[in-house]
Design a protein that fits this description.
With 303 residues, this protein is of the alpha+beta class. Helix content is 45%, strand content 14%. The protein contains twelve helices and nine strands. The two termini are 40 Å apart.
Length: 303
């Protein structure tokens, strides 16, 4: 620390005596629509990248989650012929393939033993939570539902499972699930389906970035982080963006409650081989628990 008699500054002297600064947050002139479904395996695979994108760039956009309606019910015809899916059991192998490729664990055997009959019930619960609480709380429900389905092999089409997820979030599970099955829940979900068609989303995940003139970018499927950053630049017509610093792992784990290895690696640019050392550096020994499922580690907070 140096005090300079000529400049009258104690500290580091800048190049300019006077400069214009702007501490205002950038105006959120972009709407991001995330069209998805609770049982979409590729949406589950996208979570590590989507979380980092939201954490670092959400000061540029308003985030909206839209339910797209992946599976109303099973029937005799093909559900997804491109992936060879004609009946619930066909889903198991597809899910395991997605899980192995993305390293976001997916068991999949549920679709053989006790298949989800429709993605509409958890979608309606999402809409009820969104209506009465917030986008953030509804998104938390979506995350808990996907954990239950993909990693822990629970049927999120069943009322009891949905009630349990809501209760664990501090909500009234019975009341929430009951309202979701009433006309209000059906109407809210149909509004999302209308918006999905209006946005031109036909597959999940689809992320649409729109500016104030309703012009923008549609990105279909799970893509690398760079694709979403580039899309945001184009919509904002900016050459560079100023990302926020990633939050400390201790904060992120407390906020998210459960993180898989891949999510930590993507958020902090950590190689799989360096994960153990990174965890030891970032977290105090008694603040977390590490467990393994389907060959992947996951971490929960103890505080």
């Amino acid at each position: 620390m140096i005090c300079d008699l000529e400049t009258g500054v104690c500290g580091v002297v800048g190049d300019e005596d006077m400069e214009i600064i702007d501490l205002n947050q950038p105006k959120k002139s972009v709407d991001l629509y995330y069209v998805t479904d609770p049982i979409c395996s590729h949406c589950w695979a996208l979570e590590p990248v989507l979380r980092r994108f939201v954490e670092q760039y959400s000061h540029y956009f308003n985030f909206h989650t839209v339910m797209g309606g992946l599976l109303e019910k099973w029937h005799d015809g093909p559900i997804d012929p491109a992936n060879g899916i004609y009946k619930p059991a066909d889903v198991a192998g597809h899910w395991r393939e997605v899980g192995n490729h993305s390293r976001m664990p997916i068991d999949g055997s549920l679709m053989i033993d006790n298949p989800v009959q429709s993605s509409f019930p958890p979608s309606r619960v999402f809409k009820i939570i969104q209506k009465h609480h917030s986008e953030e709380k509804a998104f938390e429900f979506l995350r808990r539902s996907r954990e239950a389905l993909f990693a822990f092999n629970k049927n999120i089409g069943e009322k009891s499972v949905l009630v349990g997820i809501c209760n664990a979030m501090g909500l009234d599970g019975e009341e929430t699930v009951k309202e979701a099955d009433e006309p209000t829940g059906h109407d809210l979900l149909n509004e999302d389906f209308f918006l999905t068609r209006k946005l031109g989303a036909r597959g999940f995940p689809t992320i649409i970035l729109l500016n104030e003139e309703n012009k923008g970018i549609k990105i279909v499927g799970g893509r690398p982080l760079e694709n979403y950053v580039m899309g945001l630049k184009q919509v904002l017509n900016l050459e560079e963006l100023q990302p926020k610093q990633q939050p400390p792992l201790s904060y992120l784990l407390k906020k998210e409650k459960l993180l898989f290895s891949k999510e930590i690696e993507v958020m902090y640019d950590v190689e799989k081989s360096e994960l153990d050392a990174f965890i030891e550096k970032e977290l105090s020994p008694n603040s977390y628990k590490a467990k393994e499922i389907l060959g992947e580690l996951y971490f929960t907070t103890t505080k």
